[in-house]
Specification:
By secondary structure, the chain is of the alpha+beta class. It has one domain: Cathepsin D, subunit A, domain 1 (Beta Barrel), CATH 2.40.70.10. Helix content is 16%, strand content 41%. The chain has three helices and eleven strands. Strand 6 and strand 7 form a beta hairpin.
Length: 140
């Protein structure tokens, strides 16, 4: 088994909103293409401080993060950022810490992507190869 890395595109969603409202032009939307480690043991996505700053993402509140070794640390959480993985998009609030961008379980669930650790790749759910399908419980 090995680590799975994927190239992703990150986009400042506040910039997108400013374009929709006419306060910015399309070419002013801050975006970055980065390599990210897919971390199926992480609930949330993680951005490095450098990436968050480069995208101009506000830190809107703080959360306690627990590392795999049990340590805990209070870290900043970004405003929503658009994440594109394998052509599928979602919005996520990300934890800010460390020196590596991580894709967590919520982003994988919302994009309906699966991880093959043997082949070291991320791929669309075979049941929904053309677009993500998000499961919800029907309440009558």
């Amino acid at each position: 088994m090995g680590e799975v890395s994927v190239e992703i595109i990150l986009t400042n969603s506040a910039d997108q909103a400013m374009v929709r409202e006419g306060y910015k032009k399309d070419d002013e939307i801050r975006t970055m293409k980065v390599k990210a480690l897919v971390d199926t043991g992480s609930v949330s996505c993680v951005l490095t401080p450098f990436v968050a700053d480069r995208l101009g993402l506000a830190r809107v509140f703080r959360h306690m993060a627990q590392y795999a070794d049990g340590r805990r640390e209070e870290v900043g959480v970004t405003e929503p950022v658009m994440i594109e993985i394998e052509g599928r998009r979602t919005y996520e609030e990300c934890l800010i810490l460390g020196d590596e961008v991580l894709i967590g379980q919520t982003a994988l669930e919302k994009t309906d992507l699966m991880v093959d650790c043997r082949q070291k790749k991320v791929f669309p759910n075979p049941d929904h190869p053309h677009q993500p399908v998000i499961k919800i419980r029907f309440l009558a």
